[in-house]
Design goal:
By secondary structure, this protein is mainly alpha-helical. The chain has one domain (45-475, 486-496). It is built from 25 helices and no strands. The chain starts with 15 loop residues before the first helix and ends with a helix.
Length: 497
Amino acid sequence: MTTPPDEHPPAGHVHPTLDDPGIARVSEVVGGPVGDHAGRHPWWTPARVVLVLAALCFSLGMVQKSSCYEANWTNGDSRYTHMCYSDLPYLYTGRGFAELNWPYTSDPQVRDRYPAMEYPVVISYWAYGTAWVTHWISGSPDLRERYLMQPDELFGDAQVSQEVRRYVVVNALGLAALALLSAWLLTRVNPRRPWDAVFFAASPMLALTALVNWDMLAVALTAGALVAWRRGSPVATGILIGLGTATKLYPLFLLGGILVIALHRRRLSDLALFGKAAAGAMSAWVFANMLAYFTDLQSWQVFWQFNKDRAADLGSVWLMVQQATGHQWTADTINNVSWLFMAVWCLGVLVIGLRAPETPRLAQLGFLIVTGFLLVNKVYSPQYVLWLLPLAVLARPRLRDQVIWQATELFYFASVWWYLGHELDPAGGGEPGSYWVAVTLRMLGELYLAGMIVRDILRPQHDLVDRTVEWPESDDDLDTGDEAPPADDERELAAAR
């Protein structure tokens, strides 16, 4: 996907030093908030600054993984103590990509050697595609000798070891491009506030987690859906949500936010536009799954069965309660209670959305719904913070609240690796209570940000983002790209707050 040439933001765009008291105080180090006669640099537009920051941030993340790269992810201790673990190298050999096996093959010999991918289809396609590129740049090695080796021996093979590194590099370059695309798209969601995307582009959580797995694929599709929604194209929004759902489940919850917005506006035409978004999402999801579904149904079902049967796992409240009480929850019990909680949580989001004096923004509702899902999910992998990041920076673009929330995520990120490396084990034995503190703080951080967003919805005067129209008035307004007229002068808004 290519991006059109960058453009200057509309006249009168919001400057963060005038809009956010926290940024205003920080700006004193470099001369204070922007003045009345400040001009614009002819080349350094906000979008370009955001892209540079995203590139630097992602590069720092690659450097942070360098110790594991040098050891080729064979040092079981340093990958946790240095917090540089990644799933990518292990899945290259553990899912048959070292032998360039199609992830949805029905070949019984392949299935005897390797389990099927436990990820949604778009991630599986990407993993296979980058494996193909890795084999190509490695000179298309002869695979016959590998067929004679046991799968657990491949990781130690010298030739495969070099391919593992190349595989990580190929994926890192692809994910870096997706991070840049995501940052650029976030500058386009609200053209009067392109600087809000800095909270994403310069986020320490982006640097630390972007290479843990392939979640950046879903992040880019989510950012694209938010832009399509802002531009008044429900079909394009739905298509991107559907592709995102075929990558990770959580983009599906954006449809819930769209439904709340439609119900808030209380017009049949709005419900019809929601139907277009839902139809687009379903069509895109079905299209993305067709190749895997018809290639090998049994392999396609692995993702769904794996998540259904999964027990309480890393970072979840379920695991914390199990360790604290000694009671083991069955997968069925966790599933039932989780979905019941989600139903109540979504009902609460609906009530909040309907009671709002003004139509809530999609990023706000999306953050609330995804947060509810993550609070009771059976696992909270460190990279799941990326699911919330683009929604969070648009829903509540304020330095203080972003620092508070991301600090709790950062603390959890460090703690989970030390927990896996047994660094948090008590000297006298027993369960690691400090790990429970990290899980609890992470959840409290999410609830804190959710609480601030709820306040913004119910009391719009606290919302930093001016309320421009996010929903087309009629079918004639679709795909025009027209922007709502700017609100009152930013200085007056800042003074009022």
